[in-house]
Structure formats: structure tokens, C-alpha cells
User: Fold this.
Amino acid sequence: MPRPEKVRLGEILLQQALLTEAQPKKALDEQRKLGRVFVEKGFVSEDQISTALARQLQLRGPTAHPAQVILVALAGAVFS
Assistant:
């Protein structure tokens, strides 16, 4: 059975005129910093964050290079 289409929370709130166009983008920028906090607190390594982000972004290969993860994340922010 196909999965239902994923609707982003920001899109729903925009449709309800509860957010401006800029607010979801600002929130996403803050969310991207979460990985940095995990590393700075010593919870995980940069390699572990890179691997987790690669999995989240569905990149192919055993481990994505951190620069590749950043580029894909930025492209998603620009084009989504």
C-alpha cells in the first residue's frame, strides 16, 4: 500500500494564514543547527551526524561526506 503524501507542518500553517512565508524558513534554519548542538554537547560525533543526515536525506552510499550532506540539505531548503 503506498504511503500517504507527506504534508509539511509549515505548509499547513501557511495555508491557514498562521505564518508568514519567511517564518517556516527561519524555523528550518534553526532546526538545522540541532546537529551542531548534539556534536558540541558531545552526544554524537560529526561523522555520526553526517551518517544520520545522509540517511534522512536518502543519500546513497555507505557514508556521505559531510560536505555532500550540507549541499543536499541546502538545496532542499532552497527548492522545497
